[in-house]
Amino acid sequence: MTEKTRSTGNGIRFTLEEIAGAVGDFGTIFPILLGVAIVSPDVNISHFFLFLAAWFIIAGLYYRLPIPIEPMKAIGAIVIAGGLSQGEIVASGLIVGALFLVLGLAGGMTWLGDRIPKSVIRGVQAGLALILLRTSLGYIVDDVLFAIVSIAIIVVFFI
Which DSSP symbol is given to 64? Predict the structure, then answer.
């Protein structure tokens, strides 16, 4: 079975699979960014989108594949649940970015990945999901009509 690809001279392919992979994270990162913008009105969301776009482009060109942005999602979930200030959001992004940069350059990502059990990773993910659920329930109780419309939209997309 042959796959039709259109490749440029630098090894970048333009196929449906590549396009889907490039935008696959948008379904989770955009709602989190919008949630951060809602709970932190002093944050300029255009800066979020600018640096997110820059990260996707730079990482895609360097690694030749889309890079997941799980740390940004975790920070976003904590911001939504905790209502962090603009300075705290920037500081958390810089600290996490510096940590991953050092780990990546030193080859520590593999070392760290080998020592953290999957159950711990799943536990952190479940904890963040429960924090988001608790926070969202507060919004649902505050505006029932908006909650019903939102749930209806979600149901329509699942049908």
Answer: S
Q: State the amino acid at position 23 in one-letter form.
A: V
Burial of 52 (0-12, 13-18, 19+ CB in 10 A): middle
pLDDT in tens, the chain (159 residues): 445 555 555 666 677 777 776 667 677 777 778 888 878 878 787 887 888 778 777 777 776 665 666 777 788 888 888 878 888 888 988 898 888 888 888 888 888 888 888 898 888 888 888 888 888 888 778 888 888 888 888 888 887
Helices in 107-143 by DSSP H: which ranges?
A: 108-115, 118-142
Torsional sign, CA 37, 71, 106, 22:
negative
Structure tokens at 110: 């593999």
Q: Which of 18, 45, 20, 19 lies closest to 34 in space, CA to CA?
A: 45
Label residues 79-117 b or e (16+ Cβ within 10 Å = b): bbbeebeeeebeebeeeeeeeeeeeeeeeeeeeeeeeee
> For tokens 């919008």, what's the residue?
34
- CA dist., res. 86 & res. 92, Å (int): 10
